[in-house]
Design goal:
Layout: E1 34-40, H1 48-63, E2 67-75, E3 88-91, H2 95-108, E4 112-117, H3 129-136, E5 141-145, H4 154-166, E6 169-172, H5 175-185, E7 192-194, H6 207-213, E8 220-225, H7 234-247, E9 251-256, H8 261-267, H9 270-281, E10 288-291, H10 297-305, E11 309-312, H11 323-330, E12 334-337, H12 341-346, E13 353-354, H13 360-372, H14 374-388, H15 393-409, H16 424-428, E14 436-440, E15 443-451, H17 452-464, H18 470-487, E16 488-489, E17 494-495, E18 498-499, H19 512-528, H20 532-545, H21 555-571, H22 576-596, H23 613-626, H24 629-645, H25 674-691, H26 694-706, E19 718-719, E20 724-725, E21 728-730, E22 733-735, H27 740-763
Parallel strand pairs: 1-2, 1-4, 2-3, 4-5, 5-6, 6-7, 8-9, 8-11, 9-10, 11-12, 12-13
Antiparallel strand pairs: 14-15, 15-18, 16-17, 19-20, 21-22
GO molecular function: glycosyltransferase activity
GO biological process, one term: carbohydrate metabolic process
Keywords: Transferase
């Protein structure tokens, strides 16, 4: 029998009754190249965890024989069972048994350990014996938490937080469970993977055949399945029957499943008898058929095939997974359901009929709409069947195999180092003129000379870099500032950008973006420089350039200039020119966002370009500086949207690739550049100042980990010792060059992230700011 589970109480679907043959793990001609230790309850135990663990074992063997699975079955000595096709058992309440199993797993050399977690199946208070076990295993840990409590006890919270901290990958079956793990338990988004509950792949539309088999020919069959007990909403379904059978007297409502054993232990069959009495009182007893049995999966599927409408009237909205709901959709049943979590996700976009909870009239109305219009009923069944193709067992097996592979490929790396990034890579790209643009490998490429963009970024780095001798900071700040100063063209009323190695300019006026970024760097210097003389210099040039920024048209140029104005206002709150620029720019971006917004595209432009989060960041900064909530809210909303676009389904950071440029309403993955990770981190830091939402710190950390291998190719770009950074991720791996933009993006990302972490730590209760040499190691212990 299958049983659904909720975030608050139960485990995932499925129970098996007795030992039955399990097919050979793999054809003899295929040699497994991955090996996984699978830990959890296992058939023939009759519980949801056992069914799910057995399904993983069987479906990987059937569809991915390249992955060998060693099962370590949790065994209850009070109810000993005979197991087939397992490596060993673990006595659930014996600490030594866990230690022996961990030793055996380590010695077997498996590539990963996949743990099915439910509080009630492990020994100790709340099942805390699992913690010693996971501390002992050496291979990367894949975690499937079957209960994710919104309001856990202290012990429950401690256990799950420890499991999350230890896990390399976490599999959940709903997006809601994923979000709870992130928001309540601190799970990094990049290690979470949603794999929907699997379902059978059977032909569509065989109702009449199976109705004849069960003696139901000529009847319209509505069905509910599962262990009976309060909280299933069956009273509401029965109360809906008079209104349904009045118009459709051929209807039969089949309630299939045994009463929950815990309830039987408390009160026997009193609950079922109350339901039967209700049906009799309403005059619909002859339209209700009871099947009080624990069904094997195959018979359950046959009975599901014999129904027209499947009903899940659960009154509680926190149910995260229902195996029978997944099965019913995959078999092409019209589903009427209350909008609990799994139903909202699975039945979205017209896949099923969602009705308000605890409403018999809503169930009756939905059923009559379908039964009055058989074309509508058939169309809904077709949509359900099509949706079910996404969750059939081969797809589930693919998701499970991908989970295993990603855990192995992205196992936790040690924290890169605990020190601040070195500055050698920056200085190696710099000379007495400024910072060179490009490199070949790590060697500066003089052919392409210099550009203003990189030198203003280098100036910003000198403003915030830690561990630099004062005279060294002064020397390089002045070098980069001198480049900025020399770039000014008074005749053109703006800054030049590109300079050849012989110090001749390539143009009379640089791009709007380079001019906007220069104003930003000048404001940044006023706010952050350690040298009062440098602050005086920056303010003078800020005032010189500011009037010329009023005519900027590029959204990014305007955003860059706004960031400079916001920095100036933090230093000088009464600076009228900055306030004017910020207000005008915010109004422009806000109107742009409103004009381009559509249901699936909450962005400022039809095309995603580079430095995308800067647009949102500037709007947030304007809202904060001007006290305009509409700007702050629009900036946060749009930043949330672009952040979602830059997180892959596997959870790691995937910046908008440069191939995207020029394509409307499209996001392409390659080539990925460090500038995008920097923009994500710095915009997230600004967003955190605005709303204190921990998700921004999590997003910033995902972008930071991108530098160290948590990316689509698993390649490391950054070297903390030298402070260098590779130029990006390509379809074939890493771009080996270390240009100025990439190096500075990495360096500035670090200091922005450190600022965010420090601010978050100041907000936390009972915590102090960590020491200088600890501040990166602890947040990124699983980088």
């Amino acid at each position: 029998m299958l049983e659904s589970h909720t975030l608050e109480t139960k485990a995932p679907p499925g129970n098996r009754g007795s030992v039955r043959p399990i097919f050979t793990l793999a054809p003899t001609h295929i040699a497994p190249d991955r090996r996984v230790a699978l830990v959890g309850n296992f058939a023939p135990r009759k519980c949801g965890i056992a069914t799910f663990t057995t399904d993983i074992f069987e479906k990987l063997a059937e569809h991915h024989p390249e992955i060998a699975v060693d099962v370590y079955a949790l065994d209850d000595p009070r109810q000993p069972l005979g197991y087939a096709n397992i490596a060993s058992t673990i006595t659930c309440d014996d600490p030594e048994s866990y230690a022996r199993a961990a030793r055996a797993i380590n010695e077997s050399g498996v590539d990963a350990v996949w743990l099915q977690h439910e509080y009630g199946i492990f020994g100790g208070p709340e099942g805390e014996m699992v913690l010693d076990f996971i501390d002992r295993v050496a291979a990367p840990l894949i975690l499937t938490p079957h209960t994710v409590l919104l309001e856990p006890s202290p012990t429950q919270r401690h256990i799950l937080e420890r499991l999350v901290q230890r896990a390399s990958r976490i599999m959940v079956m709903s997006y809601h469970a994923r979000d709870v793990l992130v928001e309540r338990y601190g799970a990094p988004l990049e290690i979470l993977q949603v794999v929907p509950h699997g379902a059978p792949d059977r032909p569509f539309g065989r109702q009449e055949e199976f109705k004849r088999r069960f003696g139901l020919a000529g009847r319209t069959v509505m069905m509910t399945f599962g262990l009976l007990g309060p909280g299933k909403g069956l009273e509401n379904a029965i109360e809906a029957l008079p209104a349904i059978v009045e118009r459709h007297p051929e209807l039969l409502y089949r309630i299939v499943g045994a009463t929950h054993p815990n309830l039987v232990a408390q009160e026997g069959e009193a609950y079922r008898e109350r339901l039967m009495a209700l049906a009799d009182e309403l005059g619909v007893a002859e339209h209700v058929q009871w099947d009080n049995r624990f069904l094997e999966t195959d018979e359950l599927l046959d009975q599901l095939e014999a129904c027209d409408i499947y009903v899940t009237p659960y009154p509680g909205m926190q149910q995260s997974t229902s195996g029978t709901l997944s099965y019913a959709v995959a078999l092409g049943k019209a589903v009427i359901s209350t909008p609990y979590l799994h139903a909202r996700e699975l039945l979205a976009d017209g896949v099923g009929e969602l009705v308000e909870p605890q409403s018999a009239s809503a169930i009756a109305a939905a059923a009559n709409r379908l039964l009055d219009d058989r074309d509508r009923l058939h169309a809904l069944q077709r949509r359900a069947y099509a949706k079910g193709r996404e969750t059939i067992w081969p797809r589930f097996a693919d998701g499970a195999a991908a989970l295993v592979e990603s855990a192995i490929a992205r196992s936790p790396r040690p924290a890169p180092v605990t020190a601040t990034p070195g500055i050698a890579g920056v200085l190696a790209m710099s000379d007495s003129t400024g910072m060179l643009q490009h490199s070949i490998g790590i060697v500066p490429d003089r052919l392409h000379g210099y550009c203003l963009d990189d030198n203003v970024r280098a100036l910003m780095l000198m403003n915030v870099a830690e561990g630099i001798e004062p005279l060294q900071r002064q020397r390089w700040s002045q070098t980069y500032a001198s480049f900025v100063q020399h770039a000014w063209n008074p005749e053109a009323g703006g800054f030049r950008n590109f300079m050849r190695f012989d110090r001749s300019w390539c143009e009379d006026l640089g791009s709007e973006d380079s001019n906007g970024r220069t104003l930003w760097a000048l404001g940044h210097t006023v706010e952050h420089s350690h040298d009062q003389s440098m602050i005086y210099w920056a303010r003078r040039w800020f005032e010189t350039a500011l009037p010329h920024c009023a005519d900027l048209n590029s959204p990014r140029a305007i955003a860059f200039a706004m960031l400079g104005a916001a920095a100036m206002l933090r230093k000088e709150p009464d600076h009228a020119g900055s306030r004017t620029l910020l207000a005008g720019g915010a109004d422009f971006l806000h109107r742009l966002l409103d004009a381009e917004r559509r249901p699936d595209w909450a962005w400022f432009e039809a095309v995603l370009g580079y430095d995308n989060p800067r647009l949102s960041q500037a709007l947030i900064e304007a809202g904060l500086a001007l006290g305009e909530a509409r700007f702050t809210d629009a900036g946060l909303d749009s930043l949330s949207w672009i952040a979602r676009q830059q997180i892959a389904a596997a959870g790691h950071f995937r910046p908008v690739g440069s191939d995207t440029f020029g394509h409307d309403h499209t996001r392409l993955p390659f080539d990925q550049q460090p500038l995008e990770a920097q923009a994500a981190i710095e915009a997230a830091a600004t967003a955190y100042r605005a709303d204190r939402d921990p998700k921004w710190q999590q997003h910033a950390q995902a972008a930071w980990r991108w530098f160290f291998g948590a990316n689509d190719r698993g390649v490391v770009l950054a070297d903390l010792a030298s402070g260098r950074c590779r130029d990006g991720v390509t379809p074939r791996g890493v771009n080996e060059n270390c240009g100025a933009e990439s190096i500075l993006a990495f360096q500035l990302s670090y200091y922005s992230l450190i600022g965010l972490l420090r601010e978050q730590q100041r907000d936390s209760t009972g915590e102090r700011v960590v020491g200088e040499t600890q501040r990166v190691a602890e947040p990124f212990a699983h980088s």
